[in-house]
């Protein structure tokens, strides 16, 4: 799980709580202890999913437009980590005569995918609304 996942959940939760307002990437980045470029990248994904809207200009920014109870954290996990999953392919060793070297990459790749699927199952039980509730109960 990467920082993008945490920043995305933070920004979406913040926008959902403050749904009547628009916030710039700079404001969201400050709030999430991140970088405006990272926030713009993540919010572009949220816009494509229809979770937030965006408007350009001085009064522009990102605004919440969705139902927080319908957005599963598992969907966010998949959305922000798909590229990383594709990059993490394990390489086979250069010694094809070694049983361990010739099979370890495939074995580790399968284990990693099982672990990712468990994370997705876990996060699919939680929504942005759950995050809002947890923030507001503190």
UniProtKB/TrEMBL annotation:
Its domain of life? Answer: Bacteria
Q: Name one GO molecular function term.
A: DNA-binding transcription factor activity
Coiled-coil-forming residues are none
Q: Cellular component terms, GO, for this chain's entry?
A: cytosol
One Pfam family recorded for the sequence: Rrf2
Under PROSITE patterns, the record lists: HTH_RRF2_2
* Name recorded for this polypeptide: Transcriptional regulator
């Amino acid at each position: 799980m990467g920082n993008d996942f945490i920043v995305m959940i933070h920004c979406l939760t913040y926008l959902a709580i403050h749904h009547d307002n628009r916030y710039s990437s700079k404001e969201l980045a400050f709030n999430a202890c991140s970088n405006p470029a990272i926030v713009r990248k993540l919010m572009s994904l949220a816009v494509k999913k229809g979770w937030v809207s965006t408007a350009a200009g001085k009064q522009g920014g990102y605004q919440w437009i969705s139902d927080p109870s319908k957005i599963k954290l598992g969907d966010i996990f998949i959305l922000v980590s798909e590229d990383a999953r594709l990059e993490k392919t394990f390489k086979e060793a250069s010694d094809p005569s070694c049983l361990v070297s010739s099979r370890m990459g495939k074995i580790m790749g399968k284990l990693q995918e099982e672990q990712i699927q468990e994370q997705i199952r876990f996060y699919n039980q939680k929504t942005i609304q759950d995050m809002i509730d947890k923030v507001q109960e503190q």
